[in-house]
Design a protein that fits this description.
heterodimer, A: mainly beta, seven-stranded mixed beta sheet, 11 strands, about 0% helix, B: mainly beta, six-stranded mixed beta sheet, five-stranded antiparallel beta sheet, globular
């Protein structure tokens, strides 16, 4: 079975902190994604990566950055956390030509 | 870019009845339309998908239909069961270059009443 693992289920951080969300996949997928899930807004793409050290902005990249130093790991970084970044964060991976995206269990981040 | 609208936001049906969730998309170049189910405390999981060269696809109690002309697609669940209660998301694959950049709808919370 494909497994996408996010390092934390729940996180509470203070405003202004630098926050790292980690995601690891075990299926040698080329593509990895970070989505943000908010009620009534669905899943919105923050950043994605097609290869190691490669990244592209999604629809809502402001306030975030990413790092992909190894194929299996994709990190989302909140440079200076703010309360409006309180949300559920979902990591996903996939590999062409298969179009299915496999999701992790999510990290619920609260910024206080 | 692609925009996906999903309705309704909440849906409550009696066990055994059918449920229908509808989505519209904006980019005529989109060619892949998956549906994901998210159970409480879990990440979304693919349940069925359809490509633009097919009008309908069925897998046991679930089916998806696609109308390319009208740019809308729907999820149909028949003989609903309590385990169908979840949040459902439709998505469209961005028609541009690159693989799997999916644009999601807003989600539908489906509740099956016993």
């Amino acid at each position: 079975d494909v497994k996408v693992t996010q390092s934390s289920r729940y996180l509470v951080k203070r405003t202004g902190e630098k926050v790292f969300l980690e995601c690891v996949q075990d299926m040698d997928h080329e593509n990895m994604f970070w989505y943000r899930q908010d009620p009534g807004l669905g899943l919105r793409l923050i950043y994605f990566s097609y290869d190691v050290k490669m990244k592209e902005k999604g629809d809502i990249p402001e306030g975030y950055s990413v790092s992909r130093e190894k194929k299996e790991r994709f990190s989302l970084i909140l440079e200076s956390a703010s309360t409006n970044q309180t949300s559920m964060y979902l990591c996903a991976s996939g590999s062409p030509p298969n179009t299915e995206a496999f999701f992790g269990q999510g990290t619920r981040l609260t910024v206080v | 870019g692609e925009n996906v609208e999903q309705h309704p936001s909440t849906l409550s049906v009696q066990e055994g009845d059918s449920a229908v969730i509808k989505c519209t998309y904006s980019d005529s170049a989109s060619n892949y339309f998956p549906w994901y189910k998210q159970e409480l405390g879990k990440g979304p999981q693919l349940i069925i998908d359809i490509r633009s060269n097919v009008g309908e696809k069925k897998d046991q109690r679930i089916a998806v239909t696609l109308n390319k002309t009208a740019k809308h697609f729907s999820l149909h669940i028949t003989e609903t069961q309590p385990e169908d209660s979840a949040v459902y998301f439709c998505a469209a694959r961005d028609g541009g270059q690159g693989a799997q950049k999916l644009v999601f709808g807003q989600g539908t919370r489906l509740t099956i009443n016993p």
